[in-house]
Specification:
By secondary structure, the chain is mostly helical. Helices cover 61% and strands 0% of the residues. Helix 2 packs across helix 5 (67-74) and helix 3 crosses helix 4 (57-65).
């Protein structure tokens, strides 16, 4: 037990935790649209879809709020200013 504590103290003294900042994972617009389409077709919950795709359910909640702008980004004909 004492050896474990000593090795743990030595490990912490090396300051290995300094550069271990959490990284943000970015998702493509196509992937976001695919997740939202999956939820709409299957009628499953955000939690179930998050488990299926390996993402956090908070992302899905945010993407649902942005769904109008996501569809515009996925459809290349709707990019830019509207025609007169």
């Amino acid at each position: 037990m004492i050896r474990f504590v000593i090795s743990l103290i030595a490990f912490c003294d090396r300051k290995l935790f300094v550069n271990m900042a959490p990284t943000r994972k970015s998702f493509s617009t196509k992937f976001k649209a695919e997740v939202l389409k999956y939820i709409a077709e299957k009628g499953c919950s955000n939690s179930a879809a998050a488990r299926n795709f390996g993402i956090d359910k908070k992302n899905i909640r945010r993407w649902k709020g942005q769904s109008d702008s996501l569809h515009k980004r996925v459809d290349p004909t709707k990019i830019g200013r509207p025609r007169k």
